[in-house]
């Protein structure tokens, strides 16, 4: 069994091993170094916690590897789920999200990772645990307590720094979101206040276009009627087409206006 000092040292070693596994697992697909974890140092306390829970609870099932695997999946998934939930409650963000995985629970745990944790539990219990114990046993007894104290100091300082940094990050995100919401509200207010002006400006611009069309209407109509296959370069064809459509639109509007005036005269006549 562990003493408090050997427990702390074991926790630190397994946190470091977990960090190495995560870095390799995440860096290979990205093809670059990915420093995983909530904290800054090369350790992942969630792996240290999972390892200590597995080694403590599953030792009685040492002779039944399938129970080690099953209970390893369950125990590590509970730790991962609770850690994700706690971090989200405290900092209002998710540090990992498995929502896109086929089988997951609220995006906090998924079948793939839980299966991998079960396999890692087997490796931990049957392969890694004994060498780690042998390594710790080689530490001089008078160095165990100072070593454990240094580890606690490092982890505590790192955790405190990480909490401060994460809190600052959360506040920055909230401030950005507030600024974005304020900007959208101001834009909506500006549009509402200037809706009438925008409509008047739009009407004026279209009137200017209509007046421009009217200015060259007679000559342009003659050119198009006289040259039905009129063409040119690509850009010129587009200009000609737009001009033709504008003329046809104006012609239709003028005809409709004449028709309305005739009907008014007939009614008043």
From TrEMBL:
Coiled-coil portions: 166-215
Q: Which domain of life does this protein belong to?
A: Bacteria
Leader peptide range in chain numbering: none
Which residue spans traverse the membrane? 6-28, 40-59, 65-87, 108-128, 148-168
Q: Which UniProt keywords apply?
A: Coiled coil, Membrane, Transmembrane, Transmembrane helix
This protein is called Putative ABC transporter permease
Species of the source? Bullifex porci
Query: Which classification does the entry list for the species?
Result: Bacteria, Pseudomonadati, Spirochaetota, Spirochaetia, Spirochaetales
